[in-house]
Design goal:
The mean pLDDT is 86. The chain has helices at residues 16-32, 69-81; strands at 2-10, 36-52, 55-67, 85-92. The chain has a single domain, classed as 2-Layer Sandwich (Alpha-Beta Plaits), CATH 3.30.70. It contains two helices and four strands, in the order E-H-E-E-H-E. The protein is of the alpha+beta class and 125 residues long. The protein has a four-stranded antiparallel sheet with strand order 2-3-1-4, covered by helices on one side.
Amino acid sequence: MRAYEVIFILDPALGDDGVEAAIAAASGVVTKEGGEVAEVQKWGKKRLAYEIKKRREGHYVFLRLRAPVKAVAELERHLNITESALKFLTVLAPAPRHKAAKAKRPGSAPQESGALRTGVEVQEA
């Protein structure tokens, strides 16, 4: 299973109950297909940058989920069919990168700035 992030915009005419029902329906689609919803954030009603389906505002909802591809495809199909969903975007969440710890050798000293040290000594004549 892979991690995904989904943002969708709901019709501003929906009340709090309608927004909760839409979130529950979307989460239900994911869990029914074998995925899990890790996080739900309601960002509230915001003004849109441009008009979508003759609406200037919308309820923004963010979902973070872990699901197979089949579940994500079914969620997108569900959001396409749902009349209250104005727009949505699904992205594959980047995997967390673990920094490789640089091992310091116990006997290594910091180099002098501007001078390159080699194992060969040069004698001046």
